[in-house]
Amino acid sequence: MLFSINLSQKTEKLNGRYNYLIEDNDSYILKDKITFKDSIFAFDNKYLPKGRISYGNAILLDNFINTDLIISIPKDQIEKDTIPFFMHDKKSSSVNYLDKVVGKGKLIRIR
């Protein structure tokens, strides 16, 4: 038997500017603006470090505000103008820190 693999599948990447909102007591608070370009993101606030984006089963934003916070985005949401995300603490007592959500928010595309 021969199997054919299509290697031309395109990996969608986050690109563009977004407002970053955090959910707090069932309402959303605008925090900052973020610019995404391929595998890097940066906040408008110059005092916050740039971060890295990993693309896999979920999209992970590493070094989000601080080195212990990581953001996960469901892969099927990347093309939408409003993208829900989940926050995880790398120092969580959970075996896999991605299993425990410590907060959530939304990214809203700026046109």
Explained architecture:
The chain has 111 residues and is an all-beta fold. The protein has strands spanning 15-24, 27-37, 40-43, 51-55, 58-62, 69-74, 82-89, 103-109. Strand 6 and strand 7 form a beta hairpin. The chain starts with 14 loop residues before the first strand and ends with a strand. Mean pLDDT is 86; it is low at 3-9.
Number of helices: 0
Sheet with the most strands, sense and barrel status:
8 strands, antiparallel, barrel
Number of strands: 8
| Sheet/helix structural class | mainly beta
Span of the ends, CA to CA: 49 Å
Q: What is the N-to-C succession of helices and strands?
A: EEEEEEEE
Strand sequence of the main sheet, in spatial order? Answer: 1-2-3-4-5-6-7-8
* Overall pLDDT score: 86
Strand portion: over 45%
In helices, the fraction of residues equals: under 10%
Low-pLDDT runs: 3-9
| Shape label | globular
Summarize the structure.
The protein is mostly beta strands and 111 residues long. It contains no helices and 8 strands.
